[in-house]
Amino acid sequence: MANLNEVLQQARAIPNFENGMPDGYKILQIVPGSIFEKLGIKNGDVITGLNGETVNDPGKALALLNDLPNANHVEITVKRGGQKKTMQYDIH
Questions:
Q1: Which of 6, 20, 29, 65 has the lowest CB atom count within 10 Å?
Q2: Where do the domains of the chain lie?
Q3: Rounded-to-integer distance, Cα 29 and Cα 32, Å
Q4: 33: nearest Cα among 11, 55, 15, 52
Q5: Is the pLDDT assigned to residue 40 strictly greater than 80?
Q6: pLDDT digit string, tens, across residues 72-90
Q7: Ramachandran bin of 79, using left for φ above 0, alpha for ψ from -120 to 50, beta for the remaining angles
Q8: Residue 83 to residues 2, 40, 48, 66, 86, Cα–Cα distance (Å)
Q9: How far apart are CA 69 and CA 5, in angstroms?
Q10: CB 68 within 8 A of CB 52
Q11: Closest Cα partner for 48 from 24, 32, 21?
């Protein structure tokens, strides 16, 4: 997997709120060919979890992202069109 700085430049992530509470990060402006596109993430998806952990505050999100370059497997939970979907990937 690319280094963290490279990954963070491949899309824009903004906090998403449901009922006034943070529930994840909306992904926008995905660069064609980026890791986000390869993982099946679409513009407007809200990432709500990584590897079973909720992603609802910046510190936690950054800590989880920092762990990804060392991971062999990643599980991403997204909200798309009001439906939650969990995607699993092996990283080589």
A1: 20
A2: 4-90
A3: 9
A4: 11
A5: yes
A6: 888 999 999 989 999 988 8
A7: beta
A8: 29, 15, 12, 27, 10
A9: 11
A10: no
A11: 24
User: Could you tell me if 35 and 85 are in contact, meaning their C-beta atoms sit under 8 angstroms apart?
Assistant: no
Q: Comparing 73 with 16, which gets the higher pLDDT?
A: 16
Annotate 49-79 with b (16+ C-beta within 10 A) or e (fewer).
Answer: bbeeeebbeeeebeebeeebeeeeebebbbb
Q: Which is more confidently placed, 45 or 51?
A: 45
DSSP annotation of 31 reads: P
Of 14-28, 32-46, 67-81, the one with minimum mean pLDDT is 67-81
Choosing among 3.40.50.720, 2.30.42.10, 3.40.50.2300, 3.40.640.10, the CATH entry for 4-90 is 2.30.42.10
Mean pLDDT score of the chain, rounded to an integer?
86
Residue with tokens 């439906």: 83
- Cα(54)–Cα(33) distance, integer angstroms: 26
Q: What is the pLDDT of residue 24?
A: 93
